[in-house]
Amino acid sequence: MQFGIFTVGDVTPDPTTGRTPTERERIKAMVAIALKAEEVGLDVFATGEHHNPPFVPSSPTTMLGYIAARTEKLILSTSTTLITTNDPVKIAEDFAMLQHLADGRVDLMMGRGNTGPVYPWFGQDIREGINLAIENYNLVHRLWREDVVNWEGKFRTPLQGFTSTPRPLDGVAPFVWHGSIRSPEIAEQAAFYGDGFFHNNIFWPADHTKQMVELYRARYAHYGHGTPEQAIVGLGGQAFMRKNSQDAVREFRPYFDNAPVYGHGPSLEDFTDQTPLTVGSPQQVIEKTLAFREYAGDYQRQLFLMDHAGLPLKTVLEQLDLLGEEVVPVLREEFAKGRPADVPDAPTHASLLAAKNTAAQDKETVA
């Protein structure tokens, strides 16, 4: 099972000091957080994609390419690649390039995003969001698997005899997760291709997440990729920790109360009761995260949001120390207990390449 962190890259004033970091400071902080993730033994760093204030990660592959040069083991991912407003040809090219630079330590999460105005900025209509996601990903999927593509669709100019370059590393496309919190069509899309399904698991109660995951698992089996239990599931989560739970609540409360997304809404206590947010001790984070399996089944990837709402970089790095030293080792051990042998690990470039080679050998043997 993979553990890591994801960031949305918000530039938010620290409510305890009133200071807002500069865009440069926030970008550099995200890099420092990624490097810390590798240092403390996490598996994955994922960045969002946004094109509007107060966010800065408008070019995920630029950031991930820089991080790739400074890390050795960390899997580099996105927590959203905007499949609706990015050109699918450019997605195919950019992530294949990143794949080569990072020696295969790359996957990505396709999503529609949560900012309506981004659609007209890039010449699209938000009312076509689902249709864009379906058509654009179909083209990306083909561009990575076919050397020469002839294609015609509704939302971009046709392609005749087109070859996307560079070709995927070792002839293996980056693994794709499809992220959605509310659209069954996206769970269906992930299942159709045998790709992964990621639920951000931050704002919604457990019963909603369960419904989406179960839909994806059932449709994954329907399309013949394996049993429902073998489907590839990822979950988000959110935590703030201190050794003493009362200290965690006291320190995090002003950040929660003023957070851009849920600030000035439900109380911290209500939100932690009704959603996966945990504010407390490392043991409390362990217990609540282990409970995710009760409604999501045995899953493959757990990412935590740790660096939002104006939290200072120093505090975030302290959180990552606690996550890497006290939380994740226990989660690895506990999640492994009772895990059925036929539940696969999260796909990596190495495992996908091995599967490709095995399939090729089997084909030769039959021939």
Automatic annotation (TrEMBL):
Q: Do you know which InterPro entries this protein is assigned to?
A: Bact_Lucif_Oxidored, LLM_FMN-dep_put, Luciferase-like_dom, Luciferase-like_sf
Molecular function (GO) terms for this protein are: oxidoreductase activity
Provide this UniProt record's keywords sorted from A to Z. Answer: Monooxygenase, Oxidoreductase
Q: Where is coiled-coil annotated?
A: none
**Oxidoreductase in keyword set:** yes
Q: Organism's domain of life?
A: Bacteria
Q: Where is the Luciferase-like domain?
A: 1-295
Enzyme Commission code(s) on record? 1.-.-.-
Q: Which EC main class describes this enzyme? A: oxidoreductase
Does the keyword Oxidoreductase feature in the UniProt annotation?
yes
**NCBIfam families to which the protein is assigned, alphabetical:** LLM_CE1758_fam
Task: Output this protein's name.
Answer: LLM class flavin-dependent oxidoreductase
Q: Which organism is it from?
A: Streptomyces galilaeus
